[in-house]
TrEMBL record:
Pathway: Cofactor biosynthesis; nicotinate biosynthesis; nicotinate from nicotinamide: step 1/1
Protein name: nicotinamidase
UniProt keyword terms in alphabetical order: Hydrolase, Metal-binding, Pyridine nucleotide biosynthesis
Pfam families: Isochorismatase
Any one GO biological process: pyridine nucleotide biosynthetic process
Domain (Isochorismatase-like): residue spans on this chain: 4-183
InterPro entries: Isochorismatase-like_dom (IPR000868), Isochorismatase-like_sf (IPR036380), Isochorismatase_Nicotinamidase (IPR052347)
Xref: PANTHER family: LD05707P, PYRAZINAMIDASE/NICOTINAMIDASE
Membership in a protein family: Belongs to the isochorismatase family.
EC number: 3.5.1.19
Length: 193
């Protein structure tokens, strides 16, 4: 069996200067790159997810409520939807796009360009263990980790390589992941914006 690193939504709009920035996002991107460089054999496979909005309806709010609706972000064809430049994508074997026409938080809701979903891709590559990193601890990292565990993968979140939106929602996310049997390693980056 094999293991995989899932890099969640390390995109310009979610990092400093983006339309829905999470403080510490750029540092997480460079941290992931450093880890990939220093431990090249740690994972059999590396994949990534992208928020990839065309017209996600009520997911974009004007004004946003920051609970169910958000500022416009990660719109297909914009620089905000691209990976942050501090993230080295050289080892990324597949990218799973999510949220084209509706809100989508979990990478397991996404699909590769050929339509294959993340769970099927991982199984096809004999993956049984996944580590999850990225943005945001309390939203898309949480949803991806919970779905990974539900799909039967032994799941660890490397919290030191995640950035969180807020302490309160992060506490809820950590409890949910722990309760679902997800292994939590380290502490998430939570900084005042």
């Amino acid at each position: 069996m094999a293991n995989a690193l899932i890099i969640v939504d390390m995109q310009n709009d979610f990092c400093e200067g983006g339309s829905l920035a999470v403080a510490g996002g750029a540092g997480v991107a460079s941290g992931i790159s450093r880890l990939l460089a220093s431990e090249p054999d740690r994972w059999s496979h590396v994949v990534a997810t992208k928020d990839y909005h065309v017209d996600p309806g009520a997911h974009f709010g004007d004004p946003p409520d920051f609970v169910e609706s958000w500022p416009r972000h990660c719109v297909v064809g914009t620089s905000g939807s691209e990976f942050h430049p501090e993230l080295d994508t050289g080892r990324v074997e597949a990218i799973f796009h999510k949220g084209e026409h509706a809100a989508a938080y979990s990478g397991f809701e996404g699909h590769a360009d050929d339509g294959e979903c993340l769970a099927d891709w991982l199984r096809r590559h004999d993956v049984d263990q996944v580590d999850v990193v990225g943005i945001a601890t309390d939203h898309c990292v949480r949803a991806t980790a919970l779905d990974a565990a539900r799909e039967g993968f032994a799941t660890t979140v490397l919290l030191e390589l995640t950035a969180a939106v807020a302490p309160a929602t992060t506490d809820v996310a950590l409890r949910a992941m722990d309760g679902a049997g997800v292994t939590l390693h380290g502490q998430p980056v939570i900084r005042a914006a």
